[in-house]
From TrEMBL:
Keyword RNA-binding (UniProt): no
Subcellular location: Membrane
Protein's name according to its UniProt entry: ABC transporter permease
InterPro entries per the UniProt record, alphabetical: ABC2_TM (IPR013525), ABC2_TM_bact-type (IPR047817), ABC_2_transport (IPR000412), Nod_factor_ABC_transporter (IPR051784)
Organism: Halonotius pteroides
Residue spans crossing the bilayer: 24-45, 57-75, 109-134, 140-161, 173-199, 232-250
Length: 254
């Protein structure tokens, strides 16, 4: 079996495995929708009120997208590794030609497809429910590379968590412990002006910050002329680094 067919076979199996888990489908597609409905349609932004959600609705598009780009890969890939380890599946995979990098690539491709669909749903809901004005420009097409790069990055991160955590529950706990602070402290929902001055430089240490700033430069009118090349380059470099580290962290299957 060729490498392409091995990756395709594993990806198809991972896709069907995802669809069979209703809880995973719910949290991937409907949890972000609930956030949009609650914060975007019910709470609503107050552009002149100050405080949290004081910016126009389009400003928070990176935050809504970050919920799936961040949480889904961390928990799904980490849980899959823990599940495979608990069920001795890696020992079975060791008898096949499937390599560690191929296994992670297959599951990353599935996550890219799932999160791509969820991102389209979220973006559409934000526009419809909040009235956010997203500038339609050629640079909007770069939203795809940002999402793909971030998914690859956090799939690799999830693989590392799966290796370090001893159980599936441990993976979920670790991913939530990491994801929740990153979600709100990476220039997504909370602006830098609301943070203490000493903490602002630490925001630049979060990989999600570069995703958020890059997406905002593509989707938020007042920031539409902002540069995004540096952010895209950082996301791409981190994606490659975390993917390689994640593939190395997977128990040997070759």
């Amino acid at each position: 079996m060729s490498r392409l067919r091995r990756i395709r076979a594993e990806a198809v199996a991972a896709w069907h495995s995802f669809l069979r888990r209703r809880t995973a489908v719910f949290f991937t597609f409907f949890f972000p929708v609930l956030l949009v409905v609650i914060f975007g349609a019910l709470v609503r932004t107050q552009p002149t009120g100050g405080g949290l959600f004081a910016e126009p609705a389009a400003y928070y598009i990176p935050g809504y997208l970050a919920t799936v780009v961040l949480f889904t890969p961390l928990s799904r890939v980490g849980s899959e590794i823990a599940r495979h380890r608990d069920d001795n599946r890696f020992e079975k995979l060791a008898t096949t030609p499937l390599g560690r990098g191929e296994w992670l690539l297959a599951h990353t491709l599935v996550n890219v497809a799932i999160i791509g669909l969820a991102s389209l749903l979220i973006l559409g809901l934000v526009v419809v429910l909040t009235g956010a004005a997203v500038p339609i420009t050629p640079r909007l097409a770069l939203l795809g590379p940002f999402i793909v790069g971030a998914v690859v990055l956090f799939c690799g991160f999830g693989a590392i968590l799966g290796r370090l955590s001893s159980t599936q529950d441990g993976v979920i706990a670790a991913s939530n412990t990491i994801a929740f602070p990153l979600l709100f402290l990476s220039d997504t929902f909370v602006t830098l002006e609301l943070l203490p001055g000493w903490f602002a430089p630490l925001v630049d240490l979060s990989p999600l910050t570069y995703f958020a700033r890059g997406v905002r430069a593509l989707t938020y009118g007042p920031a539409i002329e902002a540069p995004y090349g540096r952010e895209l380059a950082v996301v791409a470099v981190l994606a490659v680094g975390f993917f390689v580290a994640g593939a190395y962290a997977i128990p040997r299957t070759d």
